[in-house]
Amino acid sequence: MSLQHPFSQGTNPAIITEYTYMIIHNKHKTPWHAKEGDTLGYLLPIVEVPNQTGLGGYENTGVGIYPANPNALRIAEIDGTTAPYGKTVNGTIAIEKKYWLESGKTVQFMDYKVKYMWTGLYGSPVVLAIYYAGNVEDEYLGLIEIGENETKYIKRDGSTSDSFDRHHPFYVHFQFKTQDHRVGIDVGRYLWNCSIFYVNGVRYEVPAVEVLDTDGDGTADAFKYITIRAILPKAPTDGPDELRDDGDAVSSIWIDTIKPYERIPVLPPFNMEHKIIDDINVPLWAPLKHLDKWPEGDPNGLSVRNTSRVRERYLTQQYPPEAWLKYFRAVPIGAAPVTDPELWEGPYYPGDPRVNWDEWIAWDISARIIDDVPALNMSYIAEAQEERYSTNLLEKLMEERRWVRDLREVGEVRHLVET
Questions:
Q1: What is the CB neighbour count within 10 angstroms for residue 78?
Q2: Does the structure show a pLDDT above 60 at 23?
């Protein structure tokens, strides 16, 4: 998507990418939810990676850095008022991660970095260096001391608080120092609807955090999904490499620009080899009759003109035309009630009690998983006016004229009438 976005130089064209990270049931691969205290693998990216700006990875790595649960985050807190629907996208969550660190090692958690410096004589307090990671170059904010089993909440300027508020979204909890001189710390951050954060020169917005009320008390106790939007300002080939993100006040944040043919940064898993779910190209029906004419039909009888349209419209539809099903004696794949065309008594549509629909491939998410999809590599070449957004519909209504357009698709003629 390309929209105008306010930056210091005025309104600037921007590429907007949006990602929704949803909790999926590990066994059934269907939408689910998480509770406070749950630890979830590959929930959200938290670190930068080489060769792209912004967030790009799930884990801090390196000698002397020991994550308690690699590539996983813990849901530390869920909050939100869910009345009257039992859910809301105006939720708040806190996510965190535990590390055991050797002296001098640094870990990143989204827009902040923490370096373990030293501890007191008896292992407490711990002294940490805090860095802000919103710009391309990290900004040193200073040293903080945290006692054993204490938590500090940190503001953009490096000041601290003993409790969370939206000016202190990042936090560090010091557990204790081990006999082998490692310290255990939890690093975490609060995210809420309409929150904004910056990482490595990229602006991220959070337009939705859906939380649920599962026990009926009107307060959220489960987390379902979060949506993150990246704002990537465009620039011509000879334009600036970064723009100041002013917003309502003069900002210390500089946003990396995207120039023609430059690779657009994307969040994981899309910047690495990943899996996708094919939502439209999985055939749901198999023929028992006229196998040689499947799926187009008989050119002299039942026929459909466009083969590619047939594959999309009929093979993958849950409710294809009755005549098509009858001609081929088609049965639902994985749940065929008969294998002999002479015994076919269809059509068999979802809900038919003669079919065990739990076995139908349409409900089998594993059949839709495509493995080993390469990392997404995309860039923009040039900018032009999008004609679809140039029509003034109100103007057409004011003209008080009637217009008719024929839409020809798959041998059909439909009339769209607008007044």
A1: 23
A2: yes
- Longest CA span, the chain: 91
pLDDT band at 411 (very low <50, low <70, confident <90, very high): very low
Question: Is residue 34's pLDDT more than 60?
Answer: yes
176-199 exposure pattern, b = at least 16 Cβ within 10 A, e = fewer: ebeeeebbbbbbbbbbbbebebbb
Strand 412-418, strand 403-409: pairing: antiparallel
How far is CA 47 from its chain centroid?
16
Q: Output Rg (C-alpha) for the chain, integer angstroms.
A: 28
**How far, in Å, CA of 103 to CA of 180, rounded?**
11
Structure tokens belonging to residue 403 = 């217009």
Q: How far apart are CA 382 and CA 378, in angstroms?
A: 13
Retrieve residue 28's tokens.
């059934």
Considering the entire predicted model, what is its pTM?
0.82
Q: Which amino acid is residue 128, in one-letter code?
A: L
Report the residue count for the chain: 419
- How far apart CA 223 and CA 39 sit, in angstroms, is 12
Task: Tell which residue, 289, 302, 357, has the closest CA to residue 329.
Answer: 289
pLDDT at 402 over 50: no
From CA 175, how far away is CA 172, in angstroms rounded?
10
Least confident of 143-152, 262-271, 367-376: 367-376
If you average pLDDT over residues 301-329, what whole number do you get?
75
